[in-house]
């Protein structure tokens, strides 16, 4: 595992232009791409370089941005001007020069370019065919992963499937065509990648068959194709490859890295030899009075969303003077709301030997079984499989009880609309502050309604400016439009 992490760093710094160089300018010439691929080792380097953008995936990880964009969190930070571009996200006033909108675009296309290099160049290498096919499947999984983030945030985007292509040279393709490529890639990957149980000890950070199937289900869910979503999510359930971690808070500790519930995660391993590669997730959301930057402050609205006695509330947020799991007395610093995200809290036992939170070895969990069960419940309810929906929903609630049968009673409603509301409610509290809330509201076509209601309830600028038909997407970065010399066209309203 450590070796896999180190290869990622080496591959990204030697085989290709650096990430910073790539983000600042068009690639002017990779290091002899044609001649750089001749051995199995070259193929592995190319693959891990394609994974590399996930480490501190700019615009996607570390800040719970998509809780800040919704009703779950305020920006936080060390004051109003700290990360000021987050204010545009928090208050639905995004502009085409927004830093986050630019970062996620560039980071995603960096990952796509590297995945395309794997897909295009590895077939010509003389190596073990099984190993080759697995690498190609991972390359296609990664391309689908990055494109899914792009199409979800921007809608129509350039469809780049060749290593030498640069996105600024292409017009935007319809999101339907992009989804077609994503589905083709994930379907291919699901037929070749190994099950999680069959991974070797040093391979646990790599994509699996279950991850590909789980993302297929998620993609169909986001497309609104509930029938296909139910089929693919049920495949993962029926595989028995994953199960819920018995104690909810344990999901978010280092002891659960690559645990039974984890479907896909980003692996962080601190190594003094590579101390420039940092894990900023806990640092960004840590309290300013303890060890962090203080971003993503949970709202009172989120806190009030938990049912009476739900243990997940205490595992999701903490307030001043709470006693943390490691015995530390909490200090929330200058939190805007009086709360901080407990899931991002770094236990004293988890602190790296350097004493610097940015060297944390805590993985970033992107997809877990608790999410999948609730997405399956939603899809099953939509296609009339009421009992299957109830089973998946109640499995999550039973785990959340922590053995106390006097709380969180089983949901028994069978009316489709009432059950849908119960599932939506469970989704909010089960994976609160895990960077998903904004996407749920958008795909469920209720973002404007929910956000404007929040604004009225709290007399807040959050949600006040949400414009239906516009704020469901991010703007295309103006810098990219300029580089394209007008080939890229802007989203409506920006």
TrEMBL record:
Its main location: membrane. This is RagB/SusD family nutrient uptake outer membrane protein. Keywords: Cell outer membrane, Membrane, Signal. The lineage of its organism: Bacteria, Pseudomonadati, Bacteroidota, Sphingobacteriia, Sphingobacteriales. InterPro entries: SusD-like_N, SusD_RagB_dom, TPR-like_helical_dom_sf. Residues 330-493 form the RagB/SusD domain. Belongs to the SusD family. It comes from the Bacteria. GO terms for cellular component: cell outer membrane. It is found in: Cell outer membrane. It holds the Pfam family SusD_RagB. It comes from Sphingobacterium zhuxiongii. Residues 21-221 form the SusD-like N-terminal domain.
């Amino acid at each position: 595992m450590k070796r896999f992490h180190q290869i990622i760093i080496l591959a990204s710094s030697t085989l290709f232009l650096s990430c910073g160089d790539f983000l600042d300018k068009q690639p002017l010439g990779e290091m002899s791409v044609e001649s750089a691929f001749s051995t199995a080792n070259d193929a592995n380097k190319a693959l891990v370089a394609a994974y590399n953008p996930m480490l501190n995936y700019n615009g996607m990880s570390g800040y719970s941005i998509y809780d800040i964009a919704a009703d779950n969190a305020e920006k936080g930070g060390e004051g109003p001007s700290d990360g000021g571009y987050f204010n545009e996200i928090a208050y639905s006033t995004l502009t085409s020069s927004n830093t986050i909108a630019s970062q996620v675009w560039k980071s995603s296309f960096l990952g796509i370019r590297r995945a395309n290099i794997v897909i295009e160049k590895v077939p010509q290498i003389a190596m073990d065919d099984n190993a080759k096919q697995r690498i190609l499947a991972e390359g296609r999984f990664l391309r689908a992963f990055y494109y899914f983030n792009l199409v979800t945030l921007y809608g129509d985007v350039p469809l780049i499937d060749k290593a030498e292509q640069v996105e600024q040279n292409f017009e935007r393709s319809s999101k339907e065509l992009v989804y077609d490529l994503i589905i083709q890639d994930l379907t291919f990957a699901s037929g070749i990648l190994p099950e999680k149980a069959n991974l070797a000890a040093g391979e646990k950070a790599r994509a699996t068959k279950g991850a590909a199937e789980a993302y297929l289900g998620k993609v169909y869910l986001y497309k609104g194709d509930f029938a296909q979503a139910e089929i693919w999510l049920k495949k993962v359930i029926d595989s028995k490859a994953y199960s819920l971690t018995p104690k909810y808070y344990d999901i978010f500790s280092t002891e659960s890295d690559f645990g039974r519930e984890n479907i896909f995660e980003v692996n962080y391993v601190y190594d003094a030899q590579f101390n420039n590669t940092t894990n900023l997730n806990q640092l960004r959301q840590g309290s300013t009075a303890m060890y962090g930057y203080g971003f993503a402050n949970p709202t009172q609205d989120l806190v009030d969303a938990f049912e009476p006695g739900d243990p997940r509330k205490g595992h999701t947020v903490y307030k001043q003077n709470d006693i943390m799991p490691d015995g530390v007395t909490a200090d929330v610093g200058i939190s805007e709301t009086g709360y901080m995200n407990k899931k991002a809290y770094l236990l004293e036992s988890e602190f790296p030997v350097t004493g610097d939170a940015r060297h944390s070895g805590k993985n970033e969990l992107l997809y877990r079984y608790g999410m999948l069960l609730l997405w399956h419940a939603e899809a099953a309810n939509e296609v009339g499989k009421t009992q299957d929906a109830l089973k998946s929903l109640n499995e999550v609630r039973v785990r959340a009880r922590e053995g106390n049968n006097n709380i969180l009673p089983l949901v028994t409603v069978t009316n489709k609309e009432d059950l849908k509301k119960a599932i939506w409610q469970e989704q909010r509290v089960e994976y609160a502050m895990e960077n998903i809330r904004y996407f749920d509201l958008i795909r469920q076509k209720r973002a404007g309604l929910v956000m404007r209601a929040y604004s009225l309830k709290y007399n807040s600028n959050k949600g006040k400016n949400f414009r239906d038909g516009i704020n469901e997407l991010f703007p295309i970065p103006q810098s990219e439009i300029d580089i394209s010399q007008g080939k890229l066209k802007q989203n409506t309203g920006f």
